[in-house]
Amino acid sequence: MARHAFLFDLDGVLVDTAVFHFQAWRRLTRELGFDIDEEFNETLKGISRMDSLDRILNHGGVTLTPEEKTAFATRKNDWYLELVNQMTPVDVLPGVEDFLKAAKSRNIKIALGSASKNAPVILEKTGILPYFDAVIDGNHVSRSKPDPEVFLKGAQALGVSNAECVVFEDAYAGIQAAKAADMYAVGIGTTEVLSNADIVVPGFEEITPEQFV
Ligand code: B16
Ligand code: MG
Fold first, then answer.
1. Is 107 in the same domain as 144?
2. 164 and 64, same domain (yes or no)
3. Which residues of 27-36 are buried (b: 16+ CB within 10 A; e: fewer)?
4. What is the pTM of this model?
5. Shortest-distance ligand to the CA of residue 47
6. Could you give the C-alpha distances from 143 to 137, 152, 188, in angstroms and in order?
7. Cα–Cα separations (whole angstroms), residue 110 to 26, 96, 104
8. Residue whose CB lies within 8 A of the most ligand 1 atoms, among 48, 93, 117, for a mutation test
9. Is 11 a catalytic residue?
10. CA 191 to ligand 2 centroid distance, Å
11. What single DSSP character describes residue 93?
12. Which ligand is nearest to the CA of 45?
């Protein structure tokens, strides 16, 4: 089956906002009296905001009421947005814009499939929004990756079947979601972390759209 559509994760694939998430979560955990490291941060990639907070609180052995959790998640997001608002086209990861451009010129349909509720502002700030035919983000889904919902909705929005889609993902849970949706999964990162992907590449500078259609 020919593949006509590309679905992109956002954080860690198109831009490196994982670093900003880490800084903002860390600021929060320090206020709560514990710390997280980069290895733990890896387990939060692709996971929704509230699920991330639950994992973090569990990690630190801290229990909060639902109201407190909402308040802390909002604070973390405010700090995160301070960093996101400083983003410019320079923050798009190497090779990404050329890859999007080449896919567009081949009439490949393009959608975003991200857990982030901040995806629209990030795409706008970095100037890559015009490449997207559809944007499915954390505001459109009720189930986090590894559930395939975000990618199934992406295929639907583009009007293509699941088997026609290629997913580009940097998180283990995201690859699980792509495979659960019966899509071809390209891992962006290392085979140690993304052992469940169909193929793993270090980034977009090494690949062209032709390789996946
Ligand atoms: P927000 P992705 C995910 O984005 C991040 O990887 C994850 O760390 C974050 O918690 C999640 O978005 C929610 O983000 O707080 O902005 O709604 O990798 O699915 O693009
Ligand atoms: Mg990601």
1. yes
2. no
3. ebbeeeeeeb
4. 0.93
5. 1
6. 11, 12, 23
7. 33, 13, 8
8. 48
9. yes
10. 15
11. P
12. 1
How many Cβ atoms sit within 10 Å of the Cβ of residue 139? 11
**Final residue of a structural domain among 34, 59, 84:** 84
Of 84, 113, 133, the residue at which a domain comes to its end is 84
Q: In what order do the strands lie in the sheet with 134-136?
A: 134-136, 109-113, 5-8, 165-169, 184-188, 199-201
The question of whether 9 is a catalytic residue gets the answer: yes
Span from the CA of 113 to the centroid of ligand 2 (angstroms)? 9
- CA 115 to ligand 2 center in whole angstroms: 8
pLDDT tens by residue, the chain, 213 residues = 789 999 999 999 999 999 999 999 999 999 999 999 999 998 898 889 999 999 999 999 999 999 999 999 999 999 999 999 999 999 999 999 999 999 999 999 999 999 999 999 999 999 999 999 999 999 999 998 999 999 999 999 999 999 999 999 999 999 999 999 999 999 999 999 999 999 999 999 999 999 999
